[in-house]
Specification:
Elements: H1 3-25, H2 28-44, H3 53-76, H4 99-109, H5 111-118, H6 122-133, H7 138-145, H8 149-166, H9 174-189, H10 193-199, E1 200-209, E2 221-222, H11 224-235, E3 242-249, E4 252-259, E5 262-272, E6 275-282, H12 285-288
Parallel strand pairs: 1-6
Antiparallel strand pairs: 1-2, 3-4, 4-5, 5-6
């Protein structure tokens, strides 16, 4: 296989490889590193022996992601405050496919679901991602992970039950989500506590991720009263050159907050039943680099 053909093959499968790595790791930079490492291994491999390049490459990136996930978890033991995935621009806009396909994408890349996946073991997470997000047969997953098929089926069942028990409800309709997100922004920036209370579910949660590098709650806030008052207080703070941009992150509408043109925060909402069930706030500057050009 010539170098040009090998490069073309890899580039053809790059979106799938990144998709697997990002869902496994919840971090854009780490996912990109895993894909780059996969390229180095692919370019050095005896590709004449590879019958199914897609499965071969997914196997490489999955194993790299498992190794990296173990390293990340050891590193994150010292993480300050709640942890949220790094936001990822999906560009899932008006020309996107039907709502069923939107739901599949949201189920595997939404911030809320990635938080649930974080509680799985690396092997469970790999099996869940490969099976639920990309539809690989159990037999292929078994080969990729060097496990027996019965063991893989057991891992898949355990992971699926775990995710279903903790999977948040959310509104699929993007127009409805965008409308409520805009109302949320208006109420928060205008200090309209009553307006916010109309939007927030009674048991709403606010999860802020700063990594100790910016101002954000170091504990999860619970209840409409606490979340509403925090948002009103935050909205009154003076931030130089503050602007807002509606963007699409993790298959859903989000608010990108800019200070003098630089990313300062990302807000994303879980909406169900016409009310906001959760507010995710990402202020860790390391996690905002990937949305700087959105």
């Amino acid at each position: 296989m010539t170098t040009d053909i090998a490069t073309d093959l890899f580039e053809r499968h790059r979106p799938v490889l990144f998709g697997v790595a990002y869902r496994m790791l919840g971090r854009v930079t780490d996912a990109e590193d895993a894909v780059q490492d996969a390229w180095l291994r692919w370019s050095a491999a005896d590709r004449a022996e590879v019958r199914e390049p897609r499965a071969y490459l997914v196997r490489i990136v999955t194993r790299l992601a498992i190794d990296r996930l173990n390293q990340i978890r050891a590193r994150d033991e010292a993480y300050v405050g709640p942890w949220l995935p790094e936001p990822y621009a999906t560009h899932f806009g008006e020309s996107a496919p039907d709502s069923a396909e939107r739901a599949v994408l949201a189920d595997t890349v939404s911030l809320a679901v990635l938080v649930v996946l974080e509680s799985l073991s690396p092997l469970e997470r790999a099996v869940f991602v490969l099976r639920e997000a990309f539809g690989f047969p159990y037999a292929e997953i078994a080969v990729m992970l060097d496990r027996g098929e019965p063991a893989v089926r057991q891992l898949a069942g355990r992971a699926r039950r775990h995710v279903e028990e903790r999977r948040p409800r959310y509104e699929v309709d993007p127009v409805r989500r965008r409308e409520l997100t805009e109302r949320f922004l208006a109420a928060a920036t205008e200090g309209d506590l009553d307006g916010l209370m109309e939007l927030l579910a009674p048991d709403v949660r606010l999860v802020g991720d700063s990594g100790g590098k910016a101002k954000a709650p170091l504990r999860v806030l619970e209840s409409a009263d606490k979340v509403g008052r925090f948002l009103v207080s935050a909205g009154r703070q003076s931030i130089p050159g503050l602007t807002f941009r509606s963007v699409e992150l993790n298959a859903g509408p989000a608010l990108l907050v800019l200070s003098d043109g630089k990313p300062d925060a990302v807000f994303q909402l879980d909406i169900a039943g016409g009310r906001i069930q959760a507010v995710y706030v990402i202020r860790n500057p390391d996690k905002l680099r990937s949305v700087a050009d959105v």
